[in-house]
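Running this now, will post back.
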Amino acid sequence: AYCKIILHAAKYPHCSINGVLLAKSSKNKEIEFVDAIPLFHNALNLTPMAEVALTQIDQVASSQGLLIAGYYTAHENLQENSLEKANHRISDKIAENFNGACIIVVDNRKLSCQLDNIALKVAQCSEGKYRPVDINRIILEPNHTLDVCTSLLEQKSYKSLIDFDNHLDDISLDW
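Update: finished.
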């Protein structure tokens, strides 16, 4: 999931991007995100397209025993990394359906070709509000994820990443 988020941001460094995070269903407070589904890089606020995407993603996720438990974004302005501006209708909808939903913002200042730190800011919904999460609580599994992500960036693997915008342009491209 982490690598897909970073690759989505790398593919469109000149655009804001967003997507959703899929997690395993769990009874405890820990959320294990197992996949990221890239949504948009053109117009993040296309409500009808977002509804179509979320419906399709929910169907695929539930058939795999997963649920939509988070929302991620990267702002087009490299200096903008605030969680406050990340809140979106999609994140609100996810929070309605999943207690403890998360918003993740790519911390553009930490992105480089050699990743040695988690380049994310995280907030979790609690009592109807998103509250920042200490990044030290985030565990990347496997623990060599940053090395794998660096390798994928070096190989320019982001070129083959398909988001929902790409799918809408050409339905033969599978998100």
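DSSP finds five helices and six strands in the chain. More later if anyone needs it.
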